[in-house]
Design a protein that fits this description.
By secondary structure, the protein is mainly β. Helices cover 3% and strands 50% of the residues. The strands form three sheets. Strands 1-10-9-5-6 form a five-stranded mixed β-sheet, with no helix packed on it. A three-stranded antiparallel β-sheet has the order 2-8-7. Strands 3-4 form a two-stranded antiparallel sheet. Strand 7 and strand 8 (70-75) form a beta hairpin.
Length: 121
């Protein structure tokens, strides 16, 4: 599994955070994402079907402090409830950041392994 790959259990909260940084001389510094929005999607590769989506404006993604470059993603259990198990390589994801200027950057992407939970609600 690559470092950018994710694993989740359908019907549970799936949360992660990432800090966007860039090289400045000998050190890494955060990218100022003040005023930006973000969007996260997971799609079945074969069909292109959207399996889950989150975005800023109260739908699972927060940018708590723009100058820190930090993006927090929390996929609510309802967004993946009922999604069937899929092995790594069958579902792709992307986290994209949008600047007020219209520029869009893919902050991270990769594959998602989805397991069905044992507990049935």
């Amino acid at each position: 599994m690559a470092a950018s790959d994710l694993e989740l259990t359908a019907g549970t909260t799936f949360a992660f955070g990432v800090t966007w940084q860039t090289q400045d001389g000998d050190q890494m510094v955060p990218v100022d994402i003040s005023g930006c929005t973000a969007r996260f999607q997971m799609r079945d590769i074969a069909s292109g079907a959207l399996l889950a989506e989150c975005q800023t404006q109260g739908d699972g993604i927060e940018i708590p402090d723009g100058p820190s470059g930090r993006v927090l993603v929390s996929v609510h259990p309802d967004k993946t409830k009922g999604v069937s198990s899929r092995p790594l390589g069958k579902v792709a994801y992307e986290l994209r950041v949008y600047f007020p200027s219209g520029d869009a950057y893919s902050l991270m992407s990769g594959f998602v392994a989805i397991a069905e939970g044992v507990i049935r609600d």
